[in-house]
Amino acid sequence: MTTPPSRGGRTQRMPREARRRQLLNAAHQVFVAHGFHGASMDEIAEVAEVSKPVLYQHFPGKRELYVALLDAHMDEFSALLQQAINSTTDNKLRVGATIRAYYEYISRDSQAFRLIFESDLLNDELIGGRIEAFNAKFAGRIADVVAEDTRLPPAQALLMGRAMAGMAQVSARYWVDMADEVSMEEASDLVSRLAWRGIGRFPKES
């Protein structure tokens, strides 16, 4: 539990990076509860148990705080996806590992997953652009696997990469609400088999 401010109103000093993590954790709670538009810097400071000046020392405004939080979540998810992609040179196993990464991340932190894919700022140029760049990066990596295995033209492979990333994302978001009925292993395996059998219907050209 975070140590509360002293009665004299001074917030306990801590290393800058530790303070930043504390503020991001508080922002996560508030943004998840209220969305961007319903959140306030006052409430974030209150949840973090710091004064507003301390909050503004680290983040000049709510939008900058939201972007920093989103970037932190996407960096964590990116690392998990990259690890899955690099885990094997067998394309069938690689597709399965990548789809499983979506399930692992949402099972680990479903609210962070929703902040990335269900943000109420998707129409914001900066934030929506960041999320689109994230999606495009990994759809492109999946497209490379598709192209290698099917030898489809780049544009067609990218379309399939987008479809597979979307399938993983949407199915994982649906699965998290029924995790008591279907295990993560079973769910990700079902979707992986569906995806791979789809790719398998595109034979390589000689």
From TrEMBL:
**Does the keyword field hold Transmembrane?**
no
Concerning PROSITE patterns, the annotation shows: HTH_TETR_1, HTH_TETR_2
What Gene3D superfamilies is this protein classified in? Tetracycline Repressor, domain 2 (1.10.357.10)
Q: Could you tell me which species this protein originates from?
A: Paeniglutamicibacter psychrophenolicus
Which keywords does UniProt give here? DNA-binding
Task: Report domain HTH tetR-type positions.
Answer: 17-77
PANTHER family from the xrefs? HTH-TYPE TRANSCRIPTIONAL REGULATOR RUTR (PTHR30055), TRANSCRIPTIONAL REGULATORY PROTEIN (PROBABLY ASNC-FAMILY)-RELATED (PTHR30055:SF160)
Which part of the chain engages DNA, per the record?
40-59
Source superkingdom: Bacteria
The name this protein carries in UniProt is AcrR family transcriptional regulator
Q: InterPro entries attached here?
A: DNA-bd_HTH_TetR-type_CS, Homeodomain-like_sf, HTH-type_TetR-like_transc_reg, HTH_TetR, Tet_transcr_reg_TetR-rel_C_sf
